[in-house]
Amino acid sequence: MHFVFYDLETTGLNIGSDKTVEIAAYHMAEKASFSSFIDPGMPIPSEATRIHGITNEMVSGCASFNTVFLQFIEFCGKDAILVAHNNNRFDQPFMLAEANSHGITIPPWEYIDSLLWARKYRRDLPNHALQNLRNFYAIPPLQEHRALDDVLILATIFEKMTKGLSPEQVLTLAKQEGEFRMPFGKYQGRHLDDVPESYLVWLEKKGALEDPQNSKIKEHLLSIRGES
DSSP for 120-166? Predict the structure, then answer.
């Protein structure tokens, strides 16, 4: 399995009636990118243009969704895990609705919502918006809200948040319900309460808990000792 990070820019937020004006993706394993404007067949409202900067002139004469999306499917491949920030509430349902309207069958891809991943495994952060995560991980800014730029930023952030985990391991953890679980190591996937204190102490001695990404684990160890 492999990660494909993707993002849509649209004429609005109404799933089923608004249309895609740009789709972009980054295939992490192949280090390849995909980006294309789409002629939505309808005017782009000025309020949408103010957000993503895409005008009617920029998409005029571009390929249709049907053409571009078939290229996107080929780019992603069949064994892909598609990752988007706010995937579950926007990108995936929007994409599925528009593909369905064109009679396109989407491959049986897996999906991960990186926003939900951050909320689950980075509870120490006060805000999990993409640009706030970018600031936290000290990633230089690109052109915000344009699809490919946001995709490349997301790929870098997600790689840092899931350091050392395979795509299959990340997918397993993303599907697990409930409280914070160990994101790595021999006790990966277990609730912190089920991880032996001796193992947490070993991680501490190795310096692993000094990584800001592992602050939740460090806090748990301190609480066991009565130091927090």
Answer: HH-TTSS---HHHHHHHTTPPP--TTSHHHHHHHHHHHHHHHTTT--
CA distance 85 to 65: 21
Q: Which two tokens stand for residue 47?
A: 């309020």
- Nearest-angstrom CA–CA distance, 228 and 219: 7
Measure the CA–CA gap between 184 and 178, rounded to whole angstroms: 17
Q: What is the four-CA torsion angle of 193, 186, 80, 130, rounded to 10 degrees? A: 50
3-class DSSP assignment, residue 95: helix
Structural contact between residues 113 and 88, judged by C-beta atoms closer than 8 angstroms: yes
CA distance 190 to 188: 6
- Helix axis angle, 92-101 to 65-76, nearest 10°: 120
Mean local confidence (pLDDT), 87-91? 89
The torsion defined by the Cα of 31, 123, 194 and 206, in degrees rounded to 10, comes to: 60
List the single range of 20-24, 55-59, 145-149, 152-156 with lowest mean pLDDT: 145-149
pLDDT of residue 163: 85
Cα distance between residue 138 and residue 222, in whole Å: 27
- For β-strands 32-37 and 80-84, DSSP reports them as unpaired
67 CB-near residues (< 8 Å, 6+ apart): none
Q: Which amino acid would we find at residue 106?
A: I
